[in-house]
Amino acid sequence: MGVSKFSIHTENINQIASIAKVFAHPARVAILKHISEQEGCICNDLVEEIGLSQATISQHLSVIDGAGLLQGTYEGKKKCYCLNIERFEEFQNLLNSFFLTTKSNCC
Amino acid sequence: MGVSKFSIHTENINQIASIAKVFAHPARVAILKHISEQEGCICNDLVEEIGLSQATISQHLSVIDGAGLLQGTYEGKKKCYCLNIERFEEFQNLLNSFFLTTKSNCC
DNA sequence: TTTTATTATCGTAATATTGCAATATTACGA
DNA sequence: TCGTAATATTGCAATATTACGATAATAAAA
Fold first, then answer.
1. What is the number of structural domains in chain A?
2. I want to staple A24 with a disulfide (CB 3.0 to 4.6 A). Which of B21, B43, B53, B107 is the partner?
3. Residues of the domain holding A22
4. Residue at A100 is within a domain
């Protein structure tokens, strides 16, 4: 199979899983860290910084972007990515409330 | 390929990704929620509750267990799982510091 | 000891993910 | 307009994940 069964779970459960999936690959975690560390965002430095091919980095970027975590603006030829802090905090809060409620309901 | 390149990343980055991976599937999120909601843990109720086969649930349980998030004790024939709160909180803290440092370093 | 209930593991099929080379696209400058 | 730099997309190949039936292993009860 290989297909995750989403339909059998609640909306909240699927949401938590989708959020976690974004962070479930080291390249994407590294990209987010690098983007945030850079003053004013970065671009294809990620390829050199992280050591994966341009195609692969671009692919990971689109996953992160698809989750709504990025704001990209063009500066000349270069596209500069920046973290969408509101969305990022939303993710943080959703994960945190999962942790909190799970913890407090436990045996 | 299909192989994630872990060796090119820092320990901390790989750690965040590994933690997120545990929560990156709705069945595992559902399992954790059910386990925590039940007074005193549960066992194969998960199969009925969640609607996946016993083999699949057992597989997901071993992923969660492999991350150190479970404490299993036998009560007669039944094996009752319980959340390892210390480890769970460790995960929460690691993720939270990732969120915090990423956020505060951002442009 | 045999049966029964519960959980784990194995084998396998279907699908997803990861990574890269090659190629397209985009936007600027000459 | 053409060339060039930067990024995105496409098309694989390799590997991982998910799911389940079948089968083992385990532990209590008959």
1. 1
2. B21
3. 18-94
4. no
Q: What does residue A21 show for φ and ψ, rounded to 5 degrees?
A: -60, -35
Is B83 touching A (CB cutoff 8 A)? yes
Q: Is residue A84 part of a domain?
A: yes
Give distance CA B68 / C1' D21 (Å).
29
Q: What is the CATH number for A87?
A: 1.10.10.10
Q: Does pLDDT of B76 surpass 80?
A: no
In a domain, B1, yes or no: no
In a domain, residue A105? The reply is no
pLDDT in tens, A77-86: 788 899 999 9
* B83: nearest Cα among B27, B42, B24, B26: B42
Give pLDDT, residue A39: 63
Q: Which of B6, B26, B82 sits opposite A14 (nearest CB)?
A: B26
Q: Is the CB of A47 under 7 A from strand C?
A: no
